[in-house]
Amino acid sequence: MIRLTIPSIEEDDLQAVRETVASGYLVQGSRVAAFERTVALYVGTKHAVAVSNCTAALHLALLALDVQPGDLVVVTAYSWVATANVIELCGAQPVFVDIRPDTFNLDPDRLDETMARLMAVPDTARRVKAILPVHTFGQLADMPAILKIAGRHGVPVIEDAACALGATLDRVQQPGFWPGARPAGAWGALGCFSFHPRKALTTGEGGIVTTDDDALARRVRALRNHGLDPDAPAADFIMPGFNYRLTEFQAALGSTQMTKLDRIIAARRRLAARYDELLQGTPMQPPAVASGSAPVYQSYVILLPENAAAVRAELIARLRAEGIETTIGTWHIPRTTYFRTRYGYRLGDFPVADQVFARSLTLPLHEKLSETEQEEVVARLSQALGSLPSGS
After folding, report:
1. Which candidate, 64, 50, 37, places its Cα nearest to that of 208?
2. Cβ–Cβ under 8 Å, residues 127 and 94
3. Residue 73, strand partner residues
């Protein structure tokens, strides 16, 4: 079977976990703190707060910004459903924005229109508490444009960087922004990362919140640990909180994974470039890379030709029967049962997300994938597409 993903777990990772488990110190110890320091240094932020998963990271980021019931959070329509679920968990309402057809990231033009509409009504404007772009499949959203819009309206930005640890965006040509490449998680008020096994770096489950803001970091640290004051000399609980802690053995795994992250990302970029070559001359559309962007390719997501959209499930099943794992890209959140039923979204409300969701297909991509396997993936997929009736 050519697997969709295989984590890059090696002997040093296993040894770090074994040593941590054998130590008897499994939670709230030095390994979590060391992992946090390593990630903060890598991302270039003052703080990094490790949590149990990226859903927890997003939830705490919203709460740190005091998102409350009745508030509004502006968010991309195309992402893993957790991006919108956490808004609902705060009692707030997601306001979805369509995506770009090339990068699959939030479209700044549509964001500008949405913000202008929301901010034109005073009662609505006061309820808009955050903008939540996603760095889809490991490529940064257009953060300079998004931050410019957010700044004009005085609304903070939370980065859903779940897929994007190590990704950068260089916007040196735009006045008012720092020179050179800037990493995911260092643009907004807070950044949120995932360490799920499909990510370049994994701790099994796990997440982290990055920020340069001392007050936000303190609030996130308290919220992840039942509201315990992280700075008080004696234990004291200053707010209701959660048990969103990362374990010591997960942090130990994360620390050894960090030592090889650049190597893993380089391999993923090399494999993505090979897929780009193999897909030339086919009816399949490879993922686009924006100017100045250096994605990490958490997933390599193509667009199938329009005539294949209706039979995508059959294609996925056929490829699996032939020994190749594939899957859809990610989710058109407003079209899921919960959000469609709750807010009455219809097909056509987000036309680009409609098309991308219907036609996207994720190909196998991981450090252990060989070029021979890549050639087989593209050949088998091309054969399957070639067998479709012309009217499909």
Report:
1. 50
2. no
3. 94, 130
Task: Using a pLDDT cut of 90, give the percent of the chain over it.
Answer: 95
Closest CA to 268 of 260, 170, 42, 316: 260
The residue assigned the tokens 């819009």 is: 149
Q: Are 381 and 315 in contact (CB under 8 A)?
A: yes
Residues whose CB falls within 8 Å of the CB of residue 188, separated by 6 or more in sequence, listed in order: 143, 147, 156, 157, 158, 159
**Tens digit of pLDDT for each residue in 337-377?**
999 999 999 999 999 999 999 999 999 999 999 999 999 99
Domains and CATH numbers, the chain: 11-258 (3.40.640.10), 262-384 (3.90.1150.10)
Amino acid found at 353: A
**Residues 57, 151, 84, 198, CA torsion sign:** negative
Count of CA atoms in the C-beta half-sphere (13 A) of 66: 4
Q: Give the residues of the chain that fall short of pLDDT 50.
A: 173, 391-392
Q: 234-277: per-residue pLDDT in tens?
A: 999 999 999 999 999 999 999 999 999 999 999 999 999 999 99
Closest CA to 14 of 236, 242, 202: 202
Output the pTM of the full model.
Answer: 0.97
